[in-house]
Every structure is written in structure tokens, then in C-alpha cells.
Amino acid sequence: MKKYLIITASFLLLLNVNYANSAMGKNEEVYQENGKYYVEINNVTYGPYEKLDSSGVLKSGNSWGFKYYKDFSDDKPPFATYEIHFMVNGTNHGPYNIRYDALDRYDLHISDNNFGFTFPHEDGSIYAMIGENEIGPCQSIRDVKITDGNYGFYCLAPSGERSYLYINGEKHYIESSYISNIKITLNHWGYIFSEDYRSYVRRYVVINGDSFGPYYEKIYDFTMNDDNWAFAYEKNGEYFILSNGNKPYKLPLTKEQAEDDIHGLFSELFYTGGQQCSHMSCYAYKNRLVLEDDFWYLKYNIGENELKFSNKPKKEIKISNDNLFSKVKGKIIIKVEDMGKAYYINPKSKIMHYLGRPNDAFNVMREQGVGISEDDYNLFGEYAPSRLAGHILLRVEANGEAYYVNPEDNKIHYLGRPADAFNIMRGLGLGISNNDFYNL
pTM for the full model? Predict the structure, then answer.
């Protein structure tokens, strides 16, 4: 009869399972019996094992896995060889013989429908197992990333061969060995490389196979999530953020301000573990550039002052420039230099309303609309009187149907469903430069 232990913080330390780093759920249980360790998953028991890896049971969706050791003993000499195995979804992979000082170099990675790990080959090289495919040989492997969309790793090739980034079954050969910031997410992948050992001379950012650069000055804070990517860079003493391939966003910072931030985003040197690195691959980026939905945020400190930047638009912006307002009131303007963001300018309140996504635009129309009676509507025909130019009309006696009066010709456009309304309003939009927009 097996003896269950209450899993407490003390027990996890004894077991050498880091609960915070594992993905254990209610269907997984780890217990000890007669000095051996067992894992019970979905009512199936796996074991006995001399030792489980500190990463514990990894789980993603219906997939799961863990690393365990055989013939493990604290009495073995420091450079003794241990037998390790990877158990993934009930299938055992192994054994692999690894020296004690290298045990933490071989990790298991799990996604909902994929898995991967690295292991030492019989020929003395390193291989990666992605699903059921072995890839190698490599002198070393790093930056293993596994998702249900993209997957891959960086292979430092044996002497005389070309190193490569392995992505989704293809080898992307990289002429330079100065590569860093390898990132792989569900829908994107990318990295930074330099043409020589100086970390910020002729650097490139490669994203989904497209190359950006060269940048002769510095690149900072390359970040990526499943849907978006962004990085900051310096050019001629000015600072920019490039996101999703759109036109670069110029940050309102002077070089003097940036240089005041000694250990922040725009510092020239980065640190790892308190040690200054001279090789590009050991630079630690601070990831203070944060992605959220389709926008980015940047927190930047100068002394005790914190500056915040974002390309996420405000929902409402008050217009103060009467001269420009007279030219655009009632219109829909589109920022052609900033991801095509669209705004409706209320002709009475002098407020710009961000249209965002279709549902956002539909809500703006409902909130900013002017109610009209059926008698008035029937008098209009296809065109409204000039006093209603640029207004959104709501037929309050006809289920609140919404119409937009184009101020160019006073023609009435039915807005219908959110998606239809969004497309019509954008189709009637007026392109505006960032300079004119910020002068409104």
C-alpha cells in the first residue's frame, strides 16, 4: 500500500521538486514510497525513480512530461555519469548518459501538441529531439523554444561546419557567430546578430526571416509575444521603436536624457549576474518594452523621474487648434504614419474619438449619435442638410439605425453592423500626418 505525503514546501525541498516552476495540476500527484519516487498522472502510476528533476511535472493542455534519473546517488564522485530519461505523454525517451556537472544542460520543453529536449549523442556531440525527430550534430545547443506554432533552437555547429538556427524543420544558416536574443513564440520568431565582436556595430534584427538593419548604433529591448514584436534602437542620437514592421516611432528623448539612465533601457552596457559581458550573446536585456494587444508600452527612468511612452491611443482627445479643427470637423481622420489609426471628430464637442476595432467604432457611433425623427429622416433623401454635416444620426423610431453624414458632400451612409460601419467610416477617412495630428 502506497504512503502519500502531504505536499508542503518542506516536502518539495526534500523531494527536490520546485512546485513554483512546475505545471502540476489536480490530475498529477508526486509521492514517495520506500525511498523511491512515483508520479501518478490520469490514474496511471509511473516509477519507481531514484530521483526526479527539480523542474517537476511539466504540463500544457493535455500534454505532460518530466525528467527522471536512474542509478542516482549522492555518494557518487563529482564527475560520475548518470542515466537520465524523459517521460512524455506516457512514452519513455532514454536512457542518456550524462555527467553530473552537465545534468542541468538538458531540459524538457512541452507545449499543447509538441515537445522537445536535448541530449548527448553517442558520437560525443549534442542533439535535439523535437517530437520524434532527432536534429544534429551540434557542438552545443541553446535557446530551445517549443510552441504549437513555431519551434526551434540555435545549433553551434562542430568545427568546420556552419552554425544555424533551426526553425520549424528548416536550418537558417547564420554567417556570424555573434547572435543573441533568440525568441520563438506561437506566430513569430527572431534574433539579433552582429557582423563582428563589437556588440553594436552593424547589427541586424531578423524577424520571421525578414532582416531589419544594419544598425550602426545600438539596439535595445527586443521583445516579442504571440501576436506582436518590437525593439528600440538609436540612430544619429535619436531613439526609435519599431513594432510589427510599421513606421518607426520616434521617442521624444534627447541623447543627454538617455545617457542619464545609466543602467536602464538606453545604457550602452548590459549586465548578467553582476558581471560585465564583452560578448554579445551574454548581454541581458531588461524587457522594459512591454507588448499588450496591438500596442507597446515603455517605462523609462531618469533619476527619480519615470517617463512612460506608448503607441496606444487615448480614447478621447480634446482639440485646441481652432484653425485645423475647422478643416477636419465631422471627418474621420486616419494616421497614415501610425498603423492607420482612425478617429472620428465630433463637429460640436471638438473631441476626437478613437475608433479602434469594429466594436469600438460601433460604440462611438451610438454614444456620439444625434437622434432624429422619422419625419425628418424622410425629408432628407440621400443627403442631409448642411447643419448636420459630419454628424452621426440615429433613427430613434427605427431601432436606432445609425447613419454617418459625410461632411464632404452631406451624403448619408448607412452604418449597419459593427464591421460594416467600421469599413464604411474608414473608407471615408482622410489621411493625416503625425505632425498635423499632434498639432490639432
Answer: 0.63
